[in-house]
Amino acid sequence: MRKLTGYILLAVSIIGGIYLVFVFFDQWLGSGTTTQLLLDGGALVAAFIVFCVGYYLVTALERQ
Asked: What are phi and psi of 60, to 5 degrees?
């Protein structure tokens, strides 16, 4: 169950991160405000943290 949760977190963070990068660049090249750019940057950091948690859940050794 732990590995399944980890794989789900990895998939969600990768898909969400790719989407956020496109939104971030669209706002950066367009008329994005500083607040929008900061929120998108924070969302990218959150996606990276979710990725790290998912990676840990998938690769951590089982306790016996």
From this structure: -65, 145
Q: Which two tokens stand for residue 48?
A: 């990276």
Q: Measured between alpha carbons, how far is 46 from 14 in angstroms, rounded to an integer?
A: 11
Using only C-alpha atoms, the chain has a radius of gyration, in whole angstroms, of 15
Give the 3-state secondary structure of the chain.
CHHHHHHHHHHHHHHHHHHHHHHHHHHHHCCCCHHHHHHHHHHHHHHHHHHHHHHHHHHCCCCC
Per-residue pLDDT of the chain (64 residues; tens, 9 = 90+): 888 999 999 999 999 999 988 888 888 888 777 788 888 889 999 999 999 999 999 998 766 4
- The answer to whether 16 touches 47, Cβ cutoff 8 Å, is yes
